[in-house]
Write a structure and sequence with these properties.
Elements (H helix, E strand, L loop, with lengths): L3 E4 L15 H14 L22 E6 L3 E6 L5 E2 L5 H12 L1 H7 L27 H9 L6 H16 L4 E2 L1 H10 L1 H12 L7 H12 L1 E3 L1 H12 L14 H14 L5 H7 L4 E3 L4 E6 L3 E6 L10 H14 L14 E6 L7 E2 L2 H10 L3 E10 L1 H14 L5 E12 L3 H14 L3 E5 L3 H6 L13 E2 L2 H17 L22 H10 L1 E5 L4 E3 L7 E7 L2 E7 L4 E8 L4 E2 L2 H4 L7 E4 L3 E7 H10 L1 H30 L1
Parallel strand pairs: 1-3, 11-20, 12-13, 13-14, 14-15
Antiparallel strand pairs: 2-3, 2-9, 4-6, 5-6, 7-8, 8-9, 10-12, 16-23, 17-22, 18-21, 18-23, 19-20, 19-22
Helix pairs in contact: 1-12, 1-15, 2-3, 2-4, 2-10, 4-7, 4-8, 6-8, 13-17, 14-15, 20-21
C-alpha cells in the first residue's frame, strides 16, 4: 500500500504554515500550538539515560486506516518505548499461549498502585494486569522461543510488523535499565518464588529491559496504534501484526489499565484505549478510525507525558472522539463524486451553453456524502478535495444522504472553506437538512451564509453553471428581457427570409408568476421557446398536494416537443416564473410551414431533433459518470 503524508517539522510556525497545508493538519496544528509552550513536569530520572531527554521536544502524529499520516513538531525524534511496549508483548504472549493460559498467569484488573509497585493479586496469585511492571515481566516470560535469541527476534519481528519498519534498541538505555533495575529484579524473583513465572528469570528480565529500550518516534507509535485500530492489520504495509481476537484483548486492558493511576480519569476525559511510557510516549486508539502517537518527555507525578495527555484530551474534546460516542466503522464518506462537465443541473439550456459547460464545467465538482459524518470520515472528504483542488473553481458538498453530522465536523469544514476561499474556490453546501446544518453551526458561531447553502445539489450545480455562463458572456443574462427569436436553438441555421417567415407564425405570449404554460393532461398541440424569465417542469405527487421539480428551462430552450411526434396529452406541468414570456408555435402552423416551404420545415424539425439528441447524449454521459 502506498503512503500519503502531510508533514510539519520541528520548526512548525502557525503563522507561516499556510498555503498547501491541509485543513486537517491546520486543525491539529491549532491544538498542537496550544500546548507547545507548556513546560510543566519533569523528565524521568530513575533511569539515568532517560534524564538526558530534551524537555522541549514535542511531537504528534495521527495515522488513519488508509495510510494517511499527519505529523506535527518533533514527530521523528527517537526515544525509547518503555511501558508502551507492554500491550504489544501482551498480545504476542496471547498469540503464543492462548487467552486462558495468559489469564491464569496475569490478571486484567486495575491495581490502584504505582506501575512499579511490588504488589500482587494474592487471591489469584498473579500480577493485577499486564500494564504494570509485575504483569509485564510475567507476560514477557510467556513469549516462546527455542533460545533467548529466538525469543528476542520474535519480539522485534512483532514490533516491526506493527510499526511497518525494523526497529532497533538504544543500547545505552538498555545498559542503564539493566544496571539500575533492582526493583524489577525483586518483582521477578518474588513472582518466581510464588510460582507466577518460571525460570530462566535472568533471561526474562533481559528481554523485558530490552523491549523497554526499543527506539521509536511519534510516527511509529501512531502507525502501531492505527494497526490496533485496524484489527491488527498495518495500514501502510497491509501485513497482519497479530490476530484480531488478541488485538481486542490488548485494547481492553489498555482501556482499563493503560495510563498508570490516571487510567480512570483518562477513560472519563478522553475515552480511548491508550498506553503511556516514562520515555514520554503515548499511544491512543480509536478503533475503526485511526491511531495517535505523541512524544514529550516532561512527565506528571504519575509518569504520563503532560503535553501528550493534554493534547489527547483537547483532540478528543474538539472532535468528539470518546469511545462511547457513536463512531461507526470508517467506511468511505464519499458515495460518489462527479464534475459539472459530466453531470449537469436539471435546467435545460441552449446548445451553445451546453457546449460551453461541457468544455469548462469540470471546474465544478460535487462530493456526494453518505453515512455518519465525524472526524475520521470527513478527513477522507478533505483529502479528496485536496487531490482535486488544482482544477476546481466550485466545490459542492451534497449532504442529502448524510445521516448524522457530528459537531467535530464543524472546525474542519470551516478550515476547508477558508482554504478554498484563499484559492478563489467557491464552497457550497447542498442537501443538508435543518438538523445537519444546525450541527455544522455550533452555538455561538455564525451560520453559513444563505448564499452558499442550497436545498439540493441540482440547485447548487445550476447556480454554478449560471456563474460560468455569466463569466463567459461578460455579464449576467437579463432574464426579464425579451430575447430575439434569432438567438434560439429553434432558429439555428435559418436565413433572414426564413427567420422572418418563422417570426410571422409564432406568437409571443406573456405569463404571470405561477401561471401554467403547459398543464399535465392537456392536449399537446404547440411547441414553446422560452423568450424571457424562467419556467419549471413539475409533476403532482397525487394525494399529497405537493409537486416534484423535474427540470428548469433556460432562455432560448425549446420545450413541449411531444406535440410534434405523437400528439397525445401533456405529461407534466410547466410553471412560469416572474416576467416570463414564450414564443409559441402551434403544431398546425408548423405543418403548414413544412408544406409551403419544405426546406424551412426540415430545418425546424432538425433543430428540434438536434436538441433532443443532445439531451439524450448528455443523459447517457451522466448515467455513465454516476455509475462509473
Amino acid at each position: 500500500m502506498g503512503e500519503l503524508r502531510d508533514f510539519v517539522g520541528a520548526n512548525y510556525d502557525p503563522d507561516e504554515a499556510t498555503g498547501d497545508r491541509s485543513p486537517i493538519l491546520a486543525c491539529l496544528g491549532d491544538l498542537f500550538e496550544r500546548f507547545r509552550a507548556d513546560a510543566t513536569g519533569a523528565v524521568a530520572t530513575y533511569i539515568p539515560e532517560l534524564a538526558k531527554a530534551n524537555p522541549e521536544h514535542f511531537g504528534v502524529c495521527i495515522a488513519t486506516l488508509d495510510g494517511q499520516i499527519y505529523e506535527l513538531g518533533d514527530s521523528r525524534q527517537p526515544f525509547t518505548i518503555q511501558s508502551v511496549s507492554k500491550p504489544f508483548c501482551y498480545g504476542l504472549a496471547l498469540c503464543d499461549q492462548g487467552s486462558k493460559a495468559v489469564l491464569d498467569r496475569v490478571g486484567v484488573e486495575p491495581s490502584g498502585d504505582a506501575f512499579n509497585s511490588i504488589v500482587f493479586d494474592e487471591r489469584s496469585n498473579r500480577p493485577f494486569n499486564p500494564m504494570v511492571n509485575a504483569g509485564a515481566i510475567a507476560t514477557t516470560s510467556l513469549i516462546r522461543g527455542a533460545s533467548h535469541e529466538e525469543r528476542w527476534e520474535r519480539i522485534m519481528g512483532m514490533f516491526a510488523r506493527f510499526a511497518g519498519r525494523p526497529l532497533s534498541v538504544d543500547e545505552a538505555v538498555f545498559r542503564s535499565e539493566k544496571l539500575t533495575g533492582h526493583r524489577n529484579r525483586a518483582i521477578a524473583y518474588l513472582e518466581l518464588n510464588a510460582g507466577m513465572i518460571e525460570e530462566p528469570v535472568v533471561e526474562h528480565l533481559d528481554l523485558y529491559f530490552r523491549q523497554c529500550s526499543i527506539l521509536v518516534d511519534a510516527r511509529d507509535l501512531a502507525i502501531m496504534a492505527a494497526t490496533l485500530a485496524n484489527t491488527g492489520v498495518n495500514p501502510l504495509t497491509g501485513e497482519r501484526a497479530l490476530p484480531a481476537c488478541h488485538v481486542r484483548s490488548m485494547l481492553s486492558v489498555m482501556q482499563s489499565c493503560g495510563m498508570y493511576d490516571f487510567s480512570g480519569e483518562w477513560g472519563f476525559r478522553v475515552g480511548l484505549p491508550a498506553k503511556s511510557g516514562v520515555g514520554g510516549g503515548i499511544i491512543a486508539v480509536l478503533p475503526g478510525q485511526f491511531g495517535i502517537g505523541t512524544f514529550s518527555p516532561l512527565l506528571d507525578p504519575l509518569g504520563n507525558s503532560i503535553r501528550g495527555v493534554r493534547f489527547c484530551e483537547a483532540l478528543a474534546e474538539s472532535f468528539n472522539l470518546h469511545v462511547f460516542d457513536s463512531h461507526p466503522t470508517a467506511r468511505s464518506a464519499i458515495r460518489r463524486s462527479y464534475s459539472g462537465a459530466k453531470v449537469r443541473s436539471k435546467r435545460l439550456r441552449r446548445l451553445d451553453e451546453q457546449e460551453t459547460l461541457a468544455r469548462i464545467g469540470g471546474c465544478v465538482h460535487v462530493y456526494e456524502l453518505q453515512g455518519d459524518l465525524f472526524f475520521a470520515s470527513i478527513e477522507q472528504v478533505v483529502r479528496k478535495i485536496d487531490a482535486d483542488l488544482s482544477r476546481l473553481s466550485y466545490v459542492v458538498l451534497d449532504g442529502k444522504r448524510a445521516a448524522r453530522v457530528d459537531r467535530s465536523v464543524w472546525p474542519v469544514i470551516v478550515e476547508v472553506r477558508a482554504r478554498l476561499d484563499e484559492r478563489g474556490v467557491t464552497f457550497l453546501l447542498a442537501g443538508f437538512g435543518a438538523d445537519a446544518l444546525a450541527a455544522l453551526t455550533p452555538e455561538g458561531e455564525a451560520p453559513f451564509p444563505a448564499e452558499v447553502v442550497f436545498a439540493s445539489a441540482d440547485e447548487a450545480i445550476d447556480w454554478c453553471e449560471c456563474q460560468l455562463l455569466a463569466a463567459r458572456d461578460g455579464r449576467p443574462v437579463a432574464a426579464s428581457a425579451i430575447h430575439a427569436l434569432a438567438g434560439m436553438d429553434l432558429a439555428a441555421g435559418l436565413s433572414e427570409a426564413e427567420l422572418a417567415h418563422l417570426s410571422e407564425v409564432v406568437s409571443l405570449v406573456a405569463y404571470g408568476p405561477g401561471e401554467l404554460i403547459i398543464r399535465e393532461g392537456d392536449v399537446a398541440d404547440a411547441l414553446y421557446v422560452l423568450a424571457a424569465g424562467s419556467a419549471t417542469v413539475q409533476v403532482a405527487l397525487h394525494g399529497t398536494g405537493k409537486h416534484r421539480r423535474l427540470a428548469a428551462i433556460g432562455l432560448g430552450v425549446t420545450f413541449g416537443e411531444i406535440a410534434l411526434f405523437d400528439g397525445g396529452t401533456r405529461l407534466a406541468d410547466v410553471v412560469a416564473g416572474p416576467a416570463t414570456a414564450c414564443y409559441v408555435l402551434p403544431v398546425a402552423r408548423l405543418k403548414a410551414i413544412t408544406e409551403a416551404s419544405p426546406e424551412l420545415g426540415m430545418k425546424l424539425w432538425l433543430n428540434v431533433g438536434r436538441a433532443l439528441s443532445h439531451r439524450l447524449r448528455q443523459a447517457n454521459d451522466e448515467i455513465r459518470s454516476l455509475e462509473g
